[in-house]
Design brief:
globular, about 150 residues, alpha+beta
Amino acid sequence: MPQLSFHSPIGPLTLSEDDEHIVALDWGWGRDQEETPLLVCAREMMNRYFDGEKETFDLPLAPFGTDYRKRVWEALRQVPYGQTTSYGELAARVGGSARSVGGAMAANPIPILIPCHRILGRHGLGGYSGSGGLDDKRALLRLEGVEII
């Protein structure tokens, strides 16, 4: 599986590709490095994003998960740059509960590209599965111009 790592303001990140689709984004530096056209394009988009440019990440993604999780992840992709919604509001759109949405987000294999950082709890930030936890979530929200309480 081709992987490509790069430096970011929240630490090293590694993109993984399978069958011409992005299948994972992980914190840390990957062991194997291969510059495929898709991975190079994704890295360039992410670099623009981290440089403060509004980016829609129009990339072919293929996250592995249950049908429910895929529905949640697709709904996450519809939350615009610089905007947030809540776990409960997302659950009202896709079905399930705020807790089941949170579980799907914790299992998100392609964070940032599938922007789970844009989902907030009823009384605060909620959680975040990045290696820096809520510090990463705050950094990503600030980058997008979101006021953080």
